[in-house]
Design a protein that fits this description.
Layout lengths: L7 H7 L8 H9 L1 E6 L4 E3 L7 E7 L2 E6 L5 E7 L4 E2 L1 H6 L6 E4 L3 E7 H10 L1 H27 L2 H10 L9 E3 L4 H7 L4 H13 L3 E4 L2 E4 L2 H5 L4
Antiparallel strand pairs: 1-8, 2-7, 3-6, 3-8, 4-5, 4-7, 9-11, 10-11
Helix pairs in contact: 1-2, 4-5, 7-8
Amino acid sequence: MTTKKIDRRVFLKRLPLFSDFAPSELDELANRTTELHVARGVPVFHRGDPCQGFHIVIYGQVKLGFLSVEGGEKIVEIVGPGFSFGEALMFMEKPYILSATALADSMLLHISKEAVFSELERNPAFARRMLAGMSRRLHGLISDVESYSLRSGSQRIVGYLLKDEPDGDGAQVTLTISKKSLASRLNLTPEYFSRVLRDLTAHGMISVEGRSITIHDIERLRVYEG
């Protein structure tokens, strides 16, 4: 994996969390930020490791998850560019309860908890933005629990295909992660996920080519029950 140093201040300034920081504040924050280049498949941290700050994805993807007792992987969240992870445990000063692994060659910025805590004391607007980010994640996790509890597996798959509100027949959905990872994210087995895609294809509602899915009959897809 080829890496080169970047101007961390430039990347920090582009993020909504730090967009109103003055140059001197960005300099101080950048000095307490570590640049991480993580190759695909390499762990960022393991469950049980101490949490010394939080991470922001600059490019690439990181999966957050854990292994079940049976050895299967459960993916809780996929984090992409511009998004962060690890804030809640940083504030709780607890070890990580999930593992993080790069799904693609990725660049991350790790911001130390000392830098965050000192900035929170100085800047109420920064505190509100951090709270808003954690609230959005909590809302997403509650939505996931609702989906797992009240929707069938096939409904979850259809919901994923329609989540960006495609315009109509002929719309394309590109999977940004592997089908296996997406199945885990939806709390499904890979075999079940593939079986539903085959059934949707056989009924003429979609077609699948690699990670590209074309929707042919959006109205029937919306009412599909499996």
